[in-house]
Amino acid sequence: MKNEEKGRAFLRRRRQDRLITAAREARQRAVARRSGFKVGAALLTARGEIITGANVESASYGLTCCAERVALFKALTEGKARFVALGVVARSPGGPMPCGACRQLLAEYAPEAAVWVADSRRPKQIREFTVAELLPAAFLDAGKKIVVETGRARK
Ligand SMILES: [Zn+2]
What we know:
Elements lengths: L2 H25 L11 E7 L4 E5 L12 H11 L5 E8 L9 H10 L4 E6 L7 E4 H4 L11 E2 L5 E2 L1
Parallel strand pairs: 3-4
Antiparallel strand pairs: 1-2, 1-3, 4-5, 6-7
Helix pairs in contact: 2-3
Bound molecules: zinc ion (ZN).
Zinc ion binds next to α2 and α3.
């Protein structure tokens, strides 16, 4: 491996570690008294900012909101728009996969983001996905844009 490639791989690894660490910290603030299933998420913006979220459960189960959506809604309402990565952690073998509702919102608001998932007990073992892999042929606003297989938006 050339030095330039090594440098890129190192930076990428550091970025992943930083985001997964932020997601693990956010996970501690999950409000999951009913299930005990705590999930943490961290979004990385193109400017290098990190916005975190954790799941919040409700006695009315259907109102429960996932960590990914809490982080995304926080970020969007704080005026953040371009996301390069999302880290998600929970005590789950291989890491927790985002649910269908979160995949839909990621396709709409973070189509370019790399999705990194890890078991909170094994934060160095990160699995990576693109949003397009998680939700191919996503439903988007009619006539606005189409997400193609590469995950890039096209007019
Ligand atoms: Zn979800």
